[in-house]
Amino acid sequence: MRVLRAYIRFANRLNEAVGFGVSWLTTLLVLVVCYDVFTRYLLKMSIVAVQELQWHLFAVIFLVGAAYTLKHGGHVRVDVFYSRFSEKAKAWIDLVGSLVFLIPFSILAIWSSQGFVAQSFALGETSPNPGGLPYRFVLKLAIPVGFLLLALQGIALAFRSLLKILGEATEDESEQHEAEL
Q: How many CB atoms lie within 10 A of CB 88?
């Protein structure tokens, strides 16, 4: 049980740190969008690199921030049913969902994106648009990295669910309960 708890702490801390970094990327994205709107509509000029930077930042935020969102229970689920279940039933759903869907899909995404990223890196892929951004392989690298983080957090969710099923509260739940008091 100690190993499970240590892993949960590791994955939570890792994805909390990554989530903090991603939160700064969202601030940068807002600034880039504001700049693009200002230059496009007020100055009547457009910069391809700025437009590409917007969707590059959004993609990285979405991919790399997914594990942070999972850690905080922010992913979409059918809460109409889930919210009415007992804590033990929720733990079973989270355990089965993690083991059957989340972790295998994450592994499949990592495995299937490797060639895509490697080819982009080998070619030194850049934007096909004149004035576009270089180093497109960095953006493509966010795919396996994001799914790796998601898989690590999915394993932590499975371990946390298993501990709940066995009747052992995890440390993060104990800390959360103490903070609520």
A: 12
Of 140, 146, 122, the C-alpha closest to 55 is: 140
Residue 98 near residue 151 (C-beta atoms within 8 A)? no
The structure tokens listed for 59 are 């993609």
Q: What is the DSSP string of 96-124?
A: HHIIIIIHHHHHHHHHHHHHHHHHHHHHT
CB 144 within 8 A of CB 60: no
Alpha helices in 38-170 (DSSP H): 48-71, 79-82, 87-97, 103-123, 136-165
Question: pLDDT digits over 136-154, tens only?
Answer: 999 999 999 999 999 999 9
